[in-house]
Amino acid sequence: MPTTTPALIADSxxxxxxxxxxERRDLRPDDVRISIAYAGxxxxxxxxxxxxxxxxHFPLTVGHEIAGTVVDVGEDVTRYAPGDRVGVGCLVDSxxxxxxxxxxxxxxxxxxxxxxxxxxxxxxxxxxxxxxxEVVVRERFVLRIPDAMELDVAAPLLxxxxxxxxxxxxxxxxxxRSVAVVGVGGLGHMGVKIAAAMGATVTTISRSDAKAEDxxxxxATAHVASSDRGAMKAVRGSFxxxxxxxxxxxxxxxxxxxxxxxxxxxxxxxxxEPYSIRPGALIGGNKAVxxxxxxxLAETQEMLEFCAEHGIAATVEVVAxxxxxAAWDRVVDGDVRYRxxxxxxxxxxxx
Length: 351
Ligand code: NAP
Ligand code: ZN
Fold this sequence. Notes:
Elements: E1 3-10, E2 17-24, E3 31-40, H1 43-49, E4 66-73, E5 85-88, E6 91-93, H2 99-102, E7 114-115, E8 134-138, E9 143-144, H3 151-154, H4 160-170, E10 178-182, H5 186-197, E11 201-206, H6 212-218, E12 222-225, H7 229-234, E13 239-244, H8 252-256, E14 259-267, H9 279-283, E15 288-291, H10 297-309, E16 316-319, H11 324-332, E17 339-343
Parallel strand pairs: 10-11, 10-13, 11-12, 13-14, 14-15, 16-17
Antiparallel strand pairs: 1-2, 3-4, 3-8, 3-17, 4-5, 5-9, 6-7
Helix pairs in contact: 4-5, 4-10
The structure holds NADP nicotinamide-adenine-dinucleotide phosphate and zinc ion (ZN).
């Protein structure tokens, strides 16, 4: 018999949330049952429910920045026990056998991988995310949250943390290298903290100067308003890495101009329009435009340890279940400082 758990449920792209219950499967031998304390609000949740990426499967509970405590484990589980502090990110299953899985890039599983929500599991069931009080996940997809970290500020690391850590590592953010982070939102603010902790010199690029003072507090040494053409021109040729976290379309070529020779614009923001870029903008300067999608399980655990070691985690606003619709509007307005996390204990189903 599946159990039910309180959850925030969207019935359509425009319905907003109601507080109800969803089902969680019985424990399989390799499953972990987690009591969720906090779930971060990622812009991907919004793109998904509002069907900005295509049709979604309703009714739908989203959320892939999950932090909580283990309450029960299946008989074959060896790594976790009740009471352990754990997290779940964007993935809940993969085949474990294909080349990407063997290369620790489970997100690119060829079967393919199963997302934490709006995804069909290998059993045919649709997955439901973390805006809920409990989740059941295969042991292999459960991460350990370091003791030094509170659960509310840890939750956003499971998506925003790994999505910025992975490209910064891959493209060599380190002492002596300069990084620009474009968009100071959930992903962006983590990008700033992580790049600074890796030793890079960090500049934030935001639509205005409204977040300039905060950016310095997060670890940046300079801030540029992209609306200020003179300021953008002044930083041309300045960066080894431009990490674009913007959720909307931006003129990519303007950001390629900011690169030093051999630099890279690495995109993690995921709007739907094609990038417009002339070949000459890349060829002149041996420049690259790249993309990056979350990270594998081992790298996600590595990121959590890195953040704990450097004393960093997300800067959060804790919101109650009743305020999630309003929080989404604030995310879209770029108004959140810098990640909303839902206190899931406030979900009180009427039914
Ligand atoms: P977010 O918190 O809303 O931050 C996005 C930031 O983009 C805003 O804070 C804002 O920064 C800037 N922005 C928003 N609208 C803009 C516009 N019209 N023009 C210019 N700048 C604008 O979102 P998030 O949760 O960080 O997610 C960011 C993007 O990454 C989303 O598209 C999301 O789906 C995607 N994502 C990708 C992955 C992946 O694996 N690649 C993983 C998670 C999320 P300023 O206020 O500083 O201008
Ligand atoms: Zn996300």
